[in-house]
Write a structure and sequence with these properties.
Blueprint lengths: L4 H19 L12 E6 L7 H14 L4 E5 L11 E5 L7 H4 L1 H9 L4 E4 L3 H12 L3 E5 L11 E6 L26 E5 L8 E12 L5 E2 L5 E5 L4 H9 L7 E4 L8 H13 L4 E5 H4 L11 E10 L2 H15 L1
Parallel strand pairs: 1-5, 1-6, 2-4, 2-5, 6-7, 7-8, 10-11, 10-12, 12-13
Antiparallel strand pairs: 3-4, 8-9, 8-13
Length: about 325
């Protein structure tokens, strides 16, 4: 929308001034004892950063490094300074309190500490005081400049580099902000030069709510509340003979019992043999889920030249550890 271009220019200019204020020391930057790896994006919603956070956390855990994931707990009800979502052994909070993505990560990477709060430097210090020094992964951190990071990983869509700042487009900053990133993951695109790596989605399959792998349904009904449901639909379509239908709620929406019952009724009327949700949706399902089985379709990221990417991550984590 060209008539919004001036507002987008103002938004972008404010963002650039904010970056310069941190760079010049006008605003203070905090440091944690352990290294910080930030994962973020330029656009609002749906750039695949959460699967990248999970990928990095598993990589670091498998390398024998202690890991903490620091999140703001978006759409969670918690309003304090630091909520420990997982202590590395148990999940201690629910999605309504902590937000769906931190709880999903806590279930997916049980060896990692997961904590949320509005100021990630405060959260990180609280984690270190309780659990000791570790490698911190800063979720959605590209614009969270008050915390020093040892590595900035930026997730972008190919179209981001042609887009404009809000409200004229979907960007939080001008595309030129990508120059702050140490590594750039291009979703669905080929690897570029220098710091760029191509990243794609790979299906892991269908799982029960107990985490056990299940056979693919023959005629599922999809239920999602995510930023880009068309990706979920396309992924599942490649894995099943036919879809019975789908229900799409706004991103981060939590269905109550009556909404869920209505979805189940529609799915049964359409001859569905299962309801299929994303891992993010699975952590906020209502307790009463009806008679149709609920399956979780899980995905992971695959990174081009994964060995080189892994070495870049571990080199920074070990050097700063």
């Amino acid at each position: 929308m060209s008539w919004l271009a001036p507002l987008g220019a103002v938004y972008g200019a404010i963002g650039a001034l904010r970056v310069e204020a941190y760079r010049s020391g006008v605003f203070g930057v905090s440091r944690l004892q352990g290294p910080v790896i930030s994962v973020g994006n330029l656009s609002v919603g749906g750039s695949g950063k959460t699967p990248v956070v999970a990928f990095l956390a598993r990589l670091l855990v498998e390398a024998g490094l202690p890991v903490a994931i620091l999140s703001r707990g978006y759409r969670g009800a918690y309003r304090g300074e630091c909520l420990i979502v997982s202590d590395g052994e148990r999940v201690l909070a629910e999605a309504a309190e902590a937000g769906d993505e931190p709880v999903m990560l806590a279930h997916g990477i049980p060896a990692a500490i997961v904590a949320v709060g509005p100021k990630r430097d405060v959260v990180g210090r609280a984690v270190e005081a309780r659990f000791g020094r570790r490698v911190h992964i800063l979720d959605d951190g590209f614009q969270h400049l008050r915390l020093h990071r040892d590595l900035d990983v930026l997730c972008v869509e190919p179209g981001d580099l042609e887009d404009r700042p809000l409200p004229a487009g979907r960007l939080r900053e001008w595309p030129s902000a990508r120059r702050r990133a140490d590594l750039i993951l291009v979703n669905g695109g080929p690897a570029g030069t220098g710091p760029e790596f191509g990243v794609s989605r790979t299906a892991l399959g269908f799982f029960g709510l107990d985490g056990r792998e299940q056979a693919a349904p023959r005629r599922p009904w999809l239920v999602s509340a995510i930023a880009r449901p068309e990706r979920f639909e396309a992924d599942v379509r490649r894995s099943v003979p036919q879809l019975a239908g789908l229900t799409q709620f706004p991103d981060h929406h939590a269905s109550d019992a009556s909404e869920w019952a209505a979805v189940v009724a529609r799915a049964q009327a359409a001859g569905a043999d299962a309801l299929v949700v994303t891992a993010k949706d699975a952590v906020r399902l209502p307790p009463e889920r009806g008679t149709l089985p609920v399956l979780v379709f899980r995905i992971a990221v695959a990174i081009d030249d994964a060995a080189a990417f892994r070495e870049r991550i571990l080199a920074v984590a070990r050097r700063a550890a």
